[in-house]
Specification:
The strands form five sheets. This protein has a six-stranded mixed β-sheet, with helices on both faces. Strands 8, 9, 16 and 17 form a four-stranded mixed β-sheet that branches. Strands 12-14-10-15 form a four-stranded antiparallel β-sheet, covered by helices on one side. By secondary structure, it is an alpha+beta fold. The chain is built from 14 helices and 19 strands. Helix 3 (130-153) crosses helix 14 (462-480). The protein is globular. The longest helix is centred in the N-terminal third of the chain and has 24 residues, at 130-153. Bound molecules: zinc ion. Zinc ion is lined by residues 99, 132-133, 178, 205. Zinc ion (ZN) is lined by residues 99, 132-133, 178, 205.
Length: 481
């Protein structure tokens, strides 16, 4: 695709010769393809592949003279951690934070290449986990490897001696079980082995990936993610004979509950999303800029129209979700027999909360929406996690943005929130580590990255990875150096 940009001489990556970058890129591809071929599906059936993947990374580190540790909180659920030492004068470590598990994939669903074959074709590595998130794992592993080689080149022991040029430690933690809440992965490590993840900042999945809009290239850096509150609503009606319909049929009431909850809520612009939209507006040509201004404006009809004309349906849905607390009714259950009117029904709803919305706020919103049905419902909280946020300014954020700009002078980094939850909950809530979604990839403008997450034909571009490796290296060497 030929969009390689020479690295400015002042950056740490400039000290590595182009031939060495080519070799590192080739090694990265081998590692990524090895990892995709290990079907580390979550839920694991049976457990084991996550452990295989953790051991594979550990072996890669061992070969470089490092002493990684494989941690197995439950049989077959592998996590791998490692530490590179700085000279201790630079403050707390930087954590490279990623996950090994992937969601299931079925070749029969129409994959162009087998989901666990890791084929290289048409400029991409294909397979489950290519973007979520083994591509990023491979980037992080290679950065650790390249830093370890600095020590060996200086005749030092990378497992014990400070890495030349590093003042802070670099921590690496690649975990199991992210796709199911991290109880055998990040959450377990945060609770039981906090020293493996305690850091001044962490780099995690899903941000730092280019998105083209109106001919401009943006790099949203994930600084925040929404919280979730899952409620099970028990709807109480009256049992009866199906031959004589009644209004308090619990299934009929549940249908009305779903209708009321599915109406989109009031939008609220959080500071991160205001910063994101303002940055977008300032960088765009006048016409799309006025649409962005309408999205952050007060007129709901102009806002909806602007979202529709600016974004394709996928990004429109994401943006809608980032502008409000959202409710998605995802499970409905009622009834025991065709001629028995159900007296009980259950509706399970997935609420995603903006920073500033508490569990109690969300529960109150749900009960208010139920209106006159509220007295007939019991609202039970089943899962809960608050939103998390890291500063969208300061040493680490500013370095992320500056490094993007250095490697892509036309690129525009912006802070953004994610509508979904990641293992950043574990690092942020348990350990207080500001956690950024930052896995730098410069994509082909046509690539539909968000659709690849958990999707059919998940794939990552070879050139995107080639661009991302020195970017991540410069962030790590820059922050820790
Ligand atoms: Zn992921």
């Amino acid at each position: 695709m030929g969009h390689y940009v020479p690295v400015p001489a002042a950056l740490p990556s400039a000290a590595i010769a182009p031939a060495e970058w080519d070799a590192a890129h080739a090694e990265l591809l081998v590692l990524l393809r090895d990892l995709i071929r290990i079907p580390s599906i979550n839920p694991p059936d049976p457990p084991g592949p996550e452990l295989d993947a953790a051991r594979h990374i550990a072996a890669t580190f061992h070969a470089e003279g490092l002493e990684p540790e494989v941690i197995e909180p439950e049989p077959g659920r592998g996590n791998v951690v490692a530490r590179l030492r700085g000279d201790g004068t630079g403050g707390d470590p930087l954590l490279l934070f990623s996950h090994l598990d992937v969601v299931p994939a079925n070749a029969a669903d129409g994959w162009t290449h087998g989901p666990f074959d890791a084929d290289v074709a048409d400029g991409y590595v294909w397979g489950r986990g290519a973007v979520d998130m083994k591509g990023a794992v491979a980037l992080e592993v290679m950065v650790v490897v390249l830093l370890a080689r600095r020590a060996r080149a200086a005749g030092l022991d990378p497992a014990r001696d400070p890495i030349p040029g590093l003042r802070r430690d670099v921590l690496f933690a690649c975990t199991a079980d992210e796709e199911a809440g991290g109880t055998a992965g990040a959450r377990w490590l945060a609770d039981h082995r906090p020293e493996t993840m305690r850091a001044a900042g962490a780099l995690n999945e899903a941000g730092g990936v280019s998105v083209e809009l109106a001919g401009r290239r943006f790099y949203p850096i994930q600084v925040a993610e929404k919280g979730y509150e899952v409620f099970r609503i028990h709807v109480h009606g009256t049992w009866g004979h199906g031959s004589m319909p009644r209004d308090d049929n619990a299934a009929v009431m549940a249908a009305e509950v779903v209708r009321r909850l599915a109406v989109p809520g009031e939008p609220r612009l959080t500071p991160v999303m205001r910063q994101f939209l303002d940055g977008l507006r300032d960088a765009l040509p006048p016409e799309p800029a006025s649409l962005v201004a309408a999205i952050s404006g007060d007129d709901p009809r102009r806002r909806e129209a602007a979202i529709r004309s600016l974004c394709d349906p996928m990004y429109a849905r994401a943006l809608q979700a980032l502008l409000r607390d959202s409710i998605s009714p995802d499970i409905i259950a009622a009834g025991i027999k065709y001629n028995v009117i159900p007296g009980e029904a259950m509706v399970e709803i997935d609420c995603r909360t903006l920073p500033g919305t508490t569990t109690d706020d969300m529960r109150e919103e749900v009960i208010a929406r139920l209106g006159d049905l509220a007295p007939s419902c019991t609202v039970e909280l089943t899962h809960s996690a608050p939103p998390v946020a890291a500063p969208a300014s300061g040493e680490l954020y500013d370095l992320l943005a500056a490094t993007i700009r250095a490697h892509d002078p036309d690129g525009i980094p912006l802070p953004v929130m994610a509508p979904f939850a990641t293992d950043a909950k574990a690092t942020t809530l348990t350990l207080g580590v500001p956690t950024y979604g930052f896995t730098p990839l410069r994509l082909d403008p046509e690539e539909r990255f968000l659709e690849r997450f958990h999707g059919v034909d998940e794939r990552v571009g070879l050139e995107a990875l080639r661009w991302g490796l020195p970017v991540l290296y410069d962030v790590v060497a820059g922050f820790c150096g």
